[in-house]
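Predict the structure of alpha-L-rhamnosidase.
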Amino acid sequence: MVKTIGLILLLSLSSFAFAQTRVVALRCELLHNPIGIDVAQPRLSWKIDTKVRNTVQLAYHILVASSKDKLAQDIGDLWDSDKVPSANSIQAIYAGKPLKSRNECFWKVKVYTNKGESEWSDVAGWTMGLLSYKDWTGRWIGFDQYFPTDNQVEGRLSARYFRKELALTKRVKKATAYVMGLGLYELYIDGEKIGDQVLAPSPTDYTQNVKYNVFDVTDVVKQGKHALGVILGNGRFYAMRQAKPYKVKTFGFPKMQLQLMITYEDGTSETIKTDDSWKGTANGPILANNEYDGEDYDARKEFHGWADVGFDDSAWLQAEYVQEPGGTFEAQLNGQMKVMQDILPVNIAKKGNGRYILDFGQNFSGWVKMKVKGRSGQKITLRFAESLDENGELFVTNLRDAKATDTYILRGEGVEEWEPRFTYHGFRYVEVSDYTGEAAKDNFIGRFVYDDLETVGTFESSNTLLNQIYKNAWWGIASNYKGMPVDCPQRNERQPWLGDRPISAYGENFLFDNANFYIKWLEDIRLAQKADGAIPDVAPAFWRYYSDNISWPGTYLFIADMLYQQTGDIRILDQHYPAMKKWMHYMQARYMNEAGIITKDSYGDWCFPPATIEEGRGVIADKKYPSALISTAYYYHLLTMMSRFSVLTGNNQDRAHFDDAALKMKKSFNATFYHQEEFYGNNTLTDNLLAYYFGLVQPESRADLAQRIVTIIEKENNGHLSTGVIGTQWLMRSLTNMGRADLAYKLATKTTYPSWGYMVENGATTIWELWNGNTAHPKMNSQNHVMMLGDLLVWYFEHLAGIKSADNAFQTIVMKPELVGDLTFVNASYESVRGLIKSHWIKSTSSFEWKVCIPPNAKAILHIPAKDLPSIREGGQTIQGNSTFNVLGSENGSFAVEIGSGSYEFKTKL
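Done. Here is the predicted structure for alpha-L-rhamnosidase.
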């Protein structure tokens, strides 16, 4: 079988040795929307799925055609790659005829391997989007004014409704809708919503770029009369807070551009577009909406059939032409947000007088779908919170001024069902007021909303605490995927802070297929860069924070590196290299002193834990401790990354500059921050970790620094961490690299403060913003954050499970599981760009069993613990002398063995 990115094909294979093999076409540029690609040269990828061991691709042949009929005749009129000798099965760049707007493309692939030649795969395809500004023939429409129902003070507008009717006199062959609805939209045709996406489109800085969505509506647009309808919500376009224009960027009133492009069976075409023939109103049932405060809905104001043919819109206003937002129009290649899971309450506490508190048992982001029956005009209020106070009431202080409240006014016509459209909340608990009748659990459904990303990783171990932390991490990560990585889903913030994600995004990639998500975010960062090179702390820059530090904007480089490492897509580095280089020069020119130190930092080791839980009780964590050591260490590390990037992207002329600058900075760093007592800076755990992990410490002092780090943890911290968001990114891997994976394991399984286990012990179902999240001042105390994950998830997969890419996006995999503490088994898997990787090991006092699965067209270097080589058996046979296994050597009680693709079961004696 062959899978193209987002498109599935089946393949039968001819060779008898290949008889059980399928080629799976994996990607065609994006996963979720193969009918709106605006990339001139899409990337094609595939997977080989076979049980035959040591399968290696030798060549491939791709055909791309303008019709299925031509492709069936093996005619690649758009591109015939011929047979290409290559082991590459990922990111093959289309190199055929130039593609034009709306071109339909169909493709298939065959592969040649050392086990035989495949047949052609089944057909997959994609359709090009609108590649030129002139392809948009309509006009932007909206209402650039307030209406009586709008709340200007709170930044909450009533939703705007638009409609148009049309009559098609010919038989329709194909109909495609292209929509830009800002800030958020829902599209209807003949009363039915198009698509299952919510909170669309993905947010951007609309002065820089605007995402459009594409829908194939051929099944619903036929000859005859139709009605188009669109509802617009505020989203990030009309800012949730208007009172601080110096801080908060706002873009104006909601607006839209749409065109329905129709091809008739007689070969003619027609475009229905937005213009002033559309009608609109703000006098609908959605009285107010924004992300922070919620949605108000009055069912008595519903206009039934508003998006159907024949609706009387005589009282509606003529749509107005409005100024376009200014940014370039781009197809949304990252996935849409969707309702990904429904959750029922685990408990409902009756408070009297129609008031209830629902407990969903899990902190998550989304909203509640409600059933209710009552009198016309009755108002139901739903308030959302992450936790309860000591009296069992909602605790909302940590929401700051976010109201996190939805209201629904009943029609009074039987059982009514409602859920909001243009808001979301971060919550576990919901207070429902003025509810009539008994509140049954199935009358309230929690709707978990995040980007439509496949979960590609699994992890389970013999330690239940490790498993629960992993589960909490999954829920927290998913909750904060909102078209961009936000810091938290509940309070009046929800911003895409760069500093939260430099290494945690790396760990997230082992859980979610988030490549397109983070590719989109890299573009947000690039477009937020100022002309002089400055990169903001938040991107898109909805908050005007350009504080000029290293560790937050440096995330730009870390994310690019992660994406290249995990996906092998060199174009990511090619595209962003100039902007990254520009920022590096900007920071050096502006903030490097004569001693070679980067003097500017904004946050220090943000949110490091108070020494004791009591010391932090009631204390506001929003305090900055700038550190020139952190900014200099990070800049050095980024110089080494840029040196590597320069070679990868063909900018070899830059390498000498970066290498020379790094060498000079290393000397300056040690001259300034190193102490003869074998520590750095203020002798904090973070200061020493950075010097160790980044390789700033001199080789002769490396062992002493490692011991200093261990001493801080074991003796000074009584076996605990003391790192904030900076140090935690390098903690677990540093300890493992210095041979102390056992100490990393102790940190991972602690249940006393400060630790991830402490959060679990105190009822957390996600990851807290603060190590002392149960006692800190609520002004800054989110219970659903990801920044304190640091490199924990990377450590789970790469070091506990032993799944790590060593070369070219898992073409070579290093599998070196750490057998630590009381762990008796780890069972993990990861669906890489090359295929499924599995690692399941079981350890006893005298034996070790290990089941591994390596995808075709990849190889692995296993580090197998064993007392001696003859005791290592696979499938009941010793590997010694077996040509399937290339024994590379032994070290510290394990043997390095190179294997090809396939499934294996090893058993050894310890």
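The radius of gyration is 29 Å.
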